[in-house]
Amino acid sequence: MLRHETVPVTAFQQNCSLVWDEATREAAVIDPGGDLDTLLARVDDLGLRLTQIWLTHAHIDHAGAAGELAQRLGLPIVGPHRGDQFWIDGLPQQGAMFGFPPAQAFTPTRWLEDGDTVMLAGHVLHVRHCPGHTPGHVVFHSPELQRAFVGDVLFAGSIGRTDFPGGDHATLVASITQRLWPMGDDTVFIPGHGPESSFGRERRSNPYVGGT
Fold first, then answer.
1. pLDDT (tens digit, 9 = 90+) per residue, 152-197?
2. Domain enclosing residue 153, as ranges
3. 155 has which bridge partners?
4. What is the DSSP string of 160-187?
5. d(CA 212, CA 206)
6. Which of 18, 55, 67, 204 could be 79's S-S partner, Cβ–Cβ 3.0 to 4.6 Å?
C-alpha cells in the first residue's frame, strides 16, 4: 500500500510530501525546499528509507534543499521538466533574494516529460507537464491513492502566480483544465501551500477556473 504525509517546510510553509510503500518503507520526497533536519527527523520517525527526490518545479521554496539532500544521501533528483533549467541555475540567487540558506544548483538525474511515469517500490505515478507557473512545472498523479501532488499549479480557492519569469496565465489555466481536471473530480490534490482540496470542488467553486 502506498501512503503519504505532508511536512511543511521553510518560512513559506511549503507542503513537502513524503510518499512511501508501507511494506518496504521505501520513500520518495517531493519538493524538499528546506528545513532538512526537520524533514529527515520525520523520515526517521516513520522508519522510512529515502531513495528518490521528485521535484514539481525549481522555485527556491520547493527545490532549495534538493541539491544538498541528494549529495548528503546519494539520491537521484527526478524532475522537473527541463523548461525549469534556468530556475535551477538561479537557485543560489533565489536563495539570497528571499533570505533562504545557501542553495546548491544541480543537474537533475532525470528530466521529466508529459506522459512519463515515476516508480516507487512497484507503485506507478503518472507525470503531467503543467506549465504556466513555471515553464517546467510537472504534477505527480497516483491513481492508487486518488491523489495528485500539484506544486504551485492549483490551490484551494486559487491558482499559481504567473508574474514570475516564464509564467503565463493562459498557459496555466490550460494546464489546469486540460491536464488536471481529466484526473477526476474525486481526486484530492496536495498543493504547494495551504490545505488540500479536490478537483471537483475547485471545478465548482474556484473563482479562477471554476466552471471550466
1. 999 999 999 999 999 999 999 999 999 999 999 999 999 999 999 9
2. 2-205
3. 158
4. ----STT--HHHHHHHIIIIIGGG-TT-
5. 10
6. 55
| The residue count for the chain | 212
- Contact between 209 and 174 (Cβ < 8 Å): no
Cα distance between residue 83 and residue 63, in whole Å: 15
C-beta separation of 57 from 139 below 8 A: no
Predicted TM-score (pTM) above 0.90: yes
Q: In this structure, is residue 212 part of a structural domain?
A: no
Q: Is there a domain that residue 10 lies in?
A: yes
> Which cell goes with 15?
507542503
* pLDDT given at position 6: 98
Residue 210 domain flag:
no
Measured from the Cβ of residue 67, the count of other Cβ atoms closer than 10 Å reads 20
73: CATH: 3.60.15.10
Q: Is 147 helix (H, G, I), strand (E, B) or coil?
A: strand
d(CA 21, CA 40): 17
- Amino acid 30 reads I
Q: Is the model's pLDDT at 59 over the cut of 90?
A: yes
- Average pLDDT for 65-82: 98
- How many domains does the chain contain in total? 1
Q: Which of 13, 14, 21, 12 is nearest to 4 (CA)?
A: 21
Domain membership flag for residue 38: yes
